[in-house]
Amino acid sequence: MTRFRFLALILAALSSLPVGSQGLRTPGAPATSPVVVPPAPLVLVSGVRAADFIVAVVNAEPITNLQVSAEVERIRRQLTAQRQQVPDPRELARRVLDQLINDRAQLQLAVEQGIKIDEPSIDQAEQSVASQNQMTVEQLRRQLEREGMDPRRLREQLRDQLLLTRLREREVDPRVRISDTEVEQYLSEQQERSSDPAAQQLSMAHVLVAVPEGAGEQQVAELAAKAQRALQRARAGEDFAALARELSDAPDRTNGGQLGLRTGDRYPPLFLEATRTLAPGDVAAPVRSGAGFHIIKLLERRRPGLPPTTVTQSRARHILLVPSTQQGEALARDKLNDFRRRIVAGESDFATLARQNSQDGSAAQGGDLGWTSPGVFVPEFERVMDQLAPGQISQPLISRFGVHLIQLLERRNAALSEREQREMVRNVLREKKYGEVYDNWSRDVRARAYVELREAPQ
């Protein structure tokens, strides 16, 4: 792994680090807060790396040029590794300084309020960073040392991130409230907008029975009858894609006549009119265009802004081993590899091993986690689970909670209740409002702090 790539992974892990969860499931609050970048002047001394000087003071606590330069360089490396455009150096430095001032003022407020982060919480956060980089904690520390970074510095950064998150959970989250009236208003507005087929996202497939130019009445009648026979076969349950490949005269017959997912205004008006009252899976009666007769099947209808009516749920079970001084990550991984071998060989049963060994509340149920919707579990766990086929067992994976062995039992498409759909809308509105509330709060914290910006030495 290159130095740039590794540092980018560390930065990404830090920026997306979820905190505050007390189990395998994810917390409901947003994992990260928006970056606030109000204007702030900064004079850079380009090309000077060894010299250091104070560029800002926040409540008597200094921010130095080297601190700003180090953060600018880290962000530049991250953007370069991700092949993203790097902003102008002066503009990037201005943004970095501004964010350092905001963070410093908020960290000081957290200390004033008596918020503290214990070592086990930092251990868990460090474990999360290691997991996101597919490493053990010891491997992460060794890699940091090889890259010239002190592992203790990472723990200091994690402590600061946790302090900021706890402070924002205390100060910002309670201010973000979504009323039932706001949910109703949003749903009403979106339903009104999505009632227009041109604004919906539609996926269709069709069979074209072409009518040549100058065709006589008898030929047209024969082709219309052919279209009716195709309709009957489609409505009888035959595979529509196979019908298109067999019968269609359109160029798209090779891909089953599928026209792709597009907004309604990108479909011919006669297609919209034919499918206006159809449910996904229904087939419309043949419609005539200048090209011939079309048999149209509505594959999918999406209404932007409205919550989905169905969701794919997963039912899985797992065995969790929590590393300790007696049982490190390597030993836990070895034990789970042995469990997997025994299960695959038919020497043991997953549920039995889970009941006997799993250090999780699901152990009594043989590790069964029940039916869950997307977003319920922490990302590192869900990412592996989503890649499994029913019955398949994962390799051991590390999450912030320990080392897991997962077996996917089954999947299903489940209809969301009206309450669940409304809750999804509430979460969408909450995310939108969170940014505005955070911006106002952050500006208020900064306004109450003494901030002095200093010129670079001549």
Describe the secondary-structure layout.
Elements (H helix, E strand, L loop, with lengths): L2 H13 L38 E5 L2 E4 H17 L7 H24 L6 H14 L4 H10 L4 H21 L8 H15 L6 E10 L6 H19 L4 H8 L10 E6 L5 H7 L11 E2 L3 E11 L7 E12 L7 H16 L5 H8 L10 E5 L6 H8 L10 E3 L2 E14 L2 H30 L3 E3 L5
Helix pairs in contact: 1-2, 1-4, 2-3, 3-6, 3-14, 4-6, 7-14
Helical stretch tally:
14
Biggest sheet record: 4 strands, antiparallel
What is the spatial order of strands in the main beta sheet? 4-3-6-5
Q: Output the structural class.
A: alpha+beta
Please explain how this structure is put together.
With 458 residues, this protein is an alpha+beta fold. The chain has 14 helices and eleven strands. The strands form three sheets. A four-stranded antiparallel β-sheet has the order 4-3-6-5. The chain has a four-stranded antiparallel β-sheet with strand order 8-7-10-9. It is extended, with a radius of gyration of 29 Å.
A few lines on this structure:
The chain is built from 14 helices and eleven strands. With 458 residues, the chain is α+β, with helices and mostly antiparallel strands. The strands form three sheets. Strands 4-3-6-5 form a four-stranded antiparallel sheet.
Any descriptors?
458 residues; alpha+beta; Chitinase A, domain 3; four-stranded antiparallel sheet; 11 strands; 16% strand
